[in-house]
Design brief:
- This protein starts with a helix and ends in a 12-residue tail after the last helix.
- The longest helix is centred in the N-terminal third of the chain and has 15 residues, at 2-16.
- It is an alpha+beta fold.
- The strands form 6 sheets. Strands 12, 13, 14, 15, 16, 17 and 18 form a 7-stranded antiparallel beta sheet that branches. A 5-stranded mixed beta sheet has the order 2-11-10-3-9, sandwiched between helices.
- The chain is built from 27 helices and 24 strands.
Length: 671
Amino acid sequence: AEYDRLMRELLEIEEKWPELVTPDSPSQRVGSKPLSKYTQVKHITPMLSLNNANTENDILDFLQKIKNGIFELRETDAPIEIVAEPKVDGLSCSLRYEHRRLVLAATRGDGFIGEDVTKNILAVPDIPKLLPSTAPDSIEVRGEIYINDLDFIKINETQETLGNKKISNPRNAAAGYLKQLDLNAVKEQPLKFFGYALGEIDNNFASTQWEIRTKLSSWGFKLNEPAMLLSGIKEIMAFYQEIEKKRSTLGYSIDGIVYKVNDLSLHQRMGFTGKYPKWAIAHKFPAERAHTHIKKIIISVGRLGALTPVAKLEPVNVGGAWVSRATLHNEDEIKKRDFRAGDLVIIQRAGDVIPQVLSVELTNRPKDSSPFQYPTKCPSCGGPIERNDSEATWTCNAGIACPAQAVERLKFFVSRKAFYIKALGDKNIEQFYSEGLIRIPADIYKLEEKLSPKTLYNHNDSGITPLKDRDGWGEISANKLFAAIRDKKTITLNKFIFSLGINTVGETLSKRLAKKFKSFKNMQNSINKAISGDKEERQSIQAICGEVATDSLLNFFKNELNLNSLNQLLEEISIESEDVEAHKNKPLYGKTIVFTGKLTTMTRDEAKTRAESLGAIIGNSITQKTDIVVAGESAGSKLKKAERYGKKITSEKEWKEILNGKQYFNEYETN
């Protein structure tokens, strides 16, 4: 309320005396109209990148080239003073101050021409909008826009709660938010700025790089710490190794160390190559590895009951991905490698995808460390666990009676290749399960009844808070979830079989079973006969499934808990039969549809699935048999070929109208 009162007062003053309006006024930053485009900015002094070093020898070569290039340094053994700073994994930005007021901000772009992001930068609280009188009248400050670790984690937690895709790393997040055309969206994001260098300046006020850092700090800029003055290769390598170990604790992402010659007079004398300055270099950390600590070791119980030891790590960016946990595989591996809570470890992403712990830094092991004790019972349900002699994994066979397995099965049920209820993310499932709102898949379809204000109105004593009133939710996001669930009450037979999460029954086998049995009723009847001892039925199933998958299939349908869950689910959904006759009544039956270009309101997989549900056949290329071409943004050669063949071309908007039944289908008859 106080803020609103002051804002109204400011607006009244600026309306009476418009000459008092300044570029950094809150009236110019809040609620501004989206920018139509970014204008180009030519850098007076190029914003060049840095040459990279990966080894100690690379750094020795860098130092030697400095000596070779400066006459008075050639014959001396005196070490060159170097400023070492963490290399921030963010977005380079240049800030131009005139009369000590921020007047222009630009991205690096290609180093010579960047994008004007001044209005967006005004929303970043870390950046001083007015410099003190001790600063030069005109100065260009350069640095890095970034998002710190905690804020990045919060952003992705929100993304997951809303059912949105997670952002891969802080740098991508910072770049995206900085270039938002909606300034209100930028204002809501936790962008920060480190200042570390200068561009054009009207008078020199410093003789060293270290002095520049000191001045920037005194003017209100945040600096990338820890930084240090170093002399000689031993000090440089010691600093590098220390920061590599500490990188997960800095609070922001770095991918190496930047070394700069401290003496600014040498900068001018050494100059630049066409790509980078000769007086600086970036000593990169291995992209796929990082040091971090194991906070604790937990046992994760999977969808099928497998007990997997997992290291919960201090979050660290590894090769562009945020890693906070890594598998330790099994009991034998833990004993062999002697992984313990508190250990400083080196991790990498195997194949640049799966996080794994490589080794332990034993010299850093805490004195009170003790070996990990593997559990003797299921940590989720407390039930017995077993391990076959031929296997390395302990297993809990409680099925959905085990809470951990039940939760994982629910996550699998709504996953992309199953029912694909995108808005129902992992965190939501865990929360709803912990509250007892969902236990089995059928409960998902009762969430609206349980959490909608309309149904809770007459049950004020229930103690249940409507979804729209919960933290992280609102009326729009709650309605989005309910609509997404309602939209996924019909599913094809093959996807339904896959969604059950039966061990060894994957996507391909689910399609084979659907093709064989045509309907779920037929499949269940055959399985029940096989369970009752009908050898012919078992052999019929085994002919397409194999012995192992057949055993899994029959065991699933023998389990009373599974059957109870299944029967309740069948009351909530409908399964589309694979019967050809049933498809003939669908509006797009027999039509071949090809999608081209980028779809902006649905994924390509979703578009194809919806088309198949209307009886269409999905084509990969344009032929004479193609009936409809759905063209998204930036459609290329397929669109040109479709035009050449005279095919019916439909926009994404028109396609959605078809899906929603708002267009007549007879206009899509084959030409």
